[in-house]
Amino acid sequence: MEEASEEAAGTQNVKVEEVEVQNKSDMTAAAVEGEDEEEEDVESFTHADVLDIFEEGLARLVQDPLLCDLPIQVTLEEINSQIALEYGQAMTVKVLKADGEIMPIVVVQDASVLDLKKAIRRFVELKQQREGGVTHISWRYIWRSYNLVFQGEKLEDDRLRLKDYGIRNRDEVTFMKRLRKK
Q1: How confident is the prediction for the chain on average, in pLDDT?
Q2: Residue 181 DSSP code
Q3: pTM over the 0.90 mark
Q4: I need a labelling partner for 146 at 20 to 30 A (CA). Which of 56, 97, 168, 180 fits?
Q5: Triad 61, 41, 44: Cα angle to 5°
Q6: Which DSSP category does 164 fall into?
């Protein structure tokens, strides 16, 4: 008799579990229908529309007094650099080219000469992209042909920090053609 009551209780438990599973599947179906209705309410945008909306927001962001020096087609790296400048975590090194152009290069406070060279490369490549200039520059040739010079001293050791050469915020570094040894 006990076996029969245990068997009946087991059958009841199975039926309760089946009902719970059925209820869960009904709720899931209702949720899916609700999502379909929500999807119909949401506007669909093309990729071009999303880019336009993003660029409009970015243009408003760049109008902020803190970021007003940045170009309209700003990159995340440029925004982060500008913010680091405002917080004193970075410095601007003015790099003077032979044609008289001054490039404001932003590097972190404890940057090495190699970091400065990489920042110059990023700056020039972004400028070329925006202006539609030369697409490829041989940086190996540039660094073989030119030195960076600060107050008459060549920045030859890429591992040394800029502070070791005495370079501080807003100091000027020049590109100077290397002289060939004969």
Answers
A1: 80
A2: P
A3: no
A4: 168
A5: 55
A6: G
